Amino acid sequence: MIPAVVYAIPAFVLLVVVEALSYRFLPDDDERGYELRDTVTSMSMGAGSQVVAVPWKVVTLVLYAALFTVAPWHLSASSAWTWLLLFLADDLAYYAFHRAHHRVRVLWASHVVHHSSVRFNLSTALRQSWTPMTGLPFWLPLALLGIPPWMILLQQAFSLVYQFFLHTERVDRLWRPVEWFFNTPSHHRVHHGSNNAYLDRNYGGILILWDRLFGTFEPERERVVYGLTKNIDTYNPLRVAFHEFAAAWSDVRTARRWRDRAGYLFGPPGWVPDAQR
Known about the structure:
Shape: globular
Main location: membrane
Structural class: mainly alpha
InterPro entries: Fatty_acid_hydroxylase, Sterol_desaturase/TMEM195
EC number: 1.-.-.-
Helix content: 40-55%
GO molecular function: oxidoreductase activity
Strand content: under 5%
Order of helices and strands: HHHHHHHHHHH
Keywords: Lipid metabolism, Membrane, Oxidoreductase, Transmembrane, Transmembrane helix
Distance between the termini: 48 Å
Radius of gyration: 19 Å
């Protein structure tokens, strides 16, 4: 089963080239632009994520179908209300997924891949995890709501395509009502910032309303410093993909108490036992 987002890849690559050329002919000293090794790494991560996604989508579809079968009702794909419910439910599921992957270290070990570049451009959107299975539980309730599995997968693809366009410095703030309701490049630049004021903010997918509602919204004020609080300084795709899993395992292996082992896995990134603070 080929993920729907695969069909957008040629457009993604073309737009990356166009944006890279825009920096060559219209440079901006305030924007970091592109660096060849960084871009190659991002695209390698994207290609690897799609290879993993093919068999995983089959597993995902089977699980969605199983839950859809036992759902107390089945919603009609021909109803506009079903599509509206799907849009809101999918976006809320993405918010929950995204927030959890920043606040639980074993989940962060998968998601950290996407934040590992010190640059912010359209190629950064392609820097995706090779362990997509950590996201499955957040969308299972949609199948139990009676939403057909193919609709869930399609909406997930729409959301990913939308979010591709958020990864750019070439677009400043948009019209104020758009900035208030929707996730925009400005909001997503904040999310990729390692500035203290920007950490763990703006988790939204298509909408920014969930962040405003749950208190995780932060507007773009100071200049964004991209990357991690401790950057990994590597372009090796294998290290980018698995470095945090290795670091977590090292902490778990050397911990003396089961409580500390659990903290290293399920506490927030950077958690350490009280005795070490």
